[in-house]
Amino acid sequence: MNIPKSLVLQNLNIGKLYISEKKRIQKPTTYSLSIIKIQNVQLEPPKKYIYGKTICLRQYSVFSEIFDFHTTRFLSSSVYEFYENYLFFFNMMYFFYEFDENWFLQNKQIILQYIDIYSQTKKPFPNIFQEIESEKI
What we know:
The chain is of the alpha+beta class. The protein has one domain. Helices cover 20% and strands 36% of the residues. The protein is built from three helices and eight strands, in the order βββαββββαβα. It has helices at 64-67, 101-112, 125-135; strands spanning 17-24, 30-42, 49-56, 71-76, 81-82, 87-89, 92-98, 120-121. A hairpin with a 2-residue loop joins strand 6 and strand 7. 19% of the residues are buried. The mean pLDDT is 92.
């Protein structure tokens, strides 16, 4: 499998699931991972936004799409600067990656070893993905 690259925001689709990565740019750099279901996207001025419902990686299961997406995330240009493939605010950056449910469920227990109870990790999602895949070789 190819190492995930952050998606161009224009490629986010309503109703699809994505891995959402919030990078905190501080010492030390940390990452928060969740799964987001996009509800609405507006990327044209004057008001840009991405609206979705999220669930933490630990809670996601095959039934989550029906029952568990309760936390709302509204990322707006009134707070965030929108770039081609990420959002930026002060010391945070948001990235989005394709979500492959089969891969995630097969590797969920390994992924959870990389994150703490707050869904934070010291590695970005592509690095975690690469380490998991390289262990399979």
